[in-house]
Amino acid sequence: MGTETLNPPRFLPSFFACFFATILIVAPLRGQKDDDLDKALSKLGAASSSFAAGLRDFAAGRLDKAEKAFAGCVDKFPSHAYARYYLANILFLRRDYAASLEQMELALAHLDLMKVLGERAEQRKIAKLGELRASLDAMWEAADHTSEPCRNRRSIEWDKREVENEAFQAEKAVAEKEAAFGRVKAHYTYFLGNILFRLQRTPEAFRRYEEAVRIDPRHADAYNNLIAISYIARQYAVAQAFLEQAERQGLDESLNLELKERLFKALGRPIEGILFEDIPVPEEDALRVRRFALAYQPEPAGTLKIYVNAYIIFSPRTRDAILIDPGAKDARLEDFVREQGLNVRAILNTHDHFDHFGADAFYAALLRAPVFAPAAARRRLPQAPDRFLRNDEVLEFDGFRVRVVQTPGHSPESLCFLVGKVLFSGDTLYRGDIGRVEHEESVRRDEALAAMIKVIRAKLLTLPDDTVVCPGHGRTTTIGNEKADNPFLAR
Predict the structure, then answer these.
(1) Topology of the domain comprising 3-215
(2) What CA–CA distance (Å, rounded) separates 102 from 84?
């Protein structure tokens, strides 16, 4: 196992990019005068167009243009930590690690100032809202002296509600951005560790990863690299301690499972349940179920791998089988089919996210099996499946039946599959969690989430408590456990 086991830099998602473009906020820097902050804020504003152009070019892969834009940004405002971060990324990709290190150290050095400038911008916004509120209050009092007091007051009342909502959202944003800033600082510290590692300054890199998890105890990438370095150094007990610490933070499915399996082998611990698992099912079902955790690599290359569950279900009597959600190629799938002498009759997809259907075409050709997918997914799949599935449809195979359960929410077309007392829940229901919904607007997202929870309660939690739940990510559970312990489903 070489240095390639370490995670490369994980670029910040678009949320953070937009977040940076509108400036971070929070606690004031001691001794910093308001007029000095206002001058710095003005310079930051002058650099904003260059930064925005750099973000667009970086996202489009136009690295030369992005570098020029970010360099122009720091020329206008040398303390622009976010522009320096992206310059460090570009230099890292070019393997100019020494120059990348210089930019990243400057980015971290200026990060707190960016935080303070963001706070100053928020203070100005909230002050203006206060002035507007006072003006509306005065207009309310003066409405009695107008020709149409009731009509004027209705108009003023509407404006006051708008201002109150703006003020509420601004105050809410302050708290959210405070938490987000900690995650950003942890990420910058983690990325600095990556650069130091590439410069073969491993002890310094290790300390930076430790610092990253102190700042953000849920930074999965930093944990993965701490485990990897400890494993490479044969410090297996140390690696195990970091692994357990990450799992206590609920990061089980964000960890490098191949690395975890290697560590368990080195420790002499059983590896079943990490990358594969034979699911115990009720005896009356007369079925066998094998779970495979497949490593899926999202775009762009360099982002953290995720693990998606694919399942092979078969009758031990007839050897008829189905394959659910093959998101990535994995030789273990075909080996298992061959070893068990299975006849894979169909490939089923729970929904149309690429990490769940990415290897459909490969396995359809290899196993000579048709692909069945949700009917509502026809616009998003790269090629039409052999059959579209609908709610309450029953698929008959020799030795078992599959009932289709429509559960929109995580995606509009999400399905679950019920085979006897085994539920394949895709990304609708997990152990102790539920799937995310796809709306960008917070209000619509909240509504969609509430609707999905209603569907889960009506269609899934009404199943017998001993129904085994096989989710799209993570370990199995039961309906009874989720009714009792899932915090999203508590009434």
Answers:
(1) 1.25.40
(2) 9
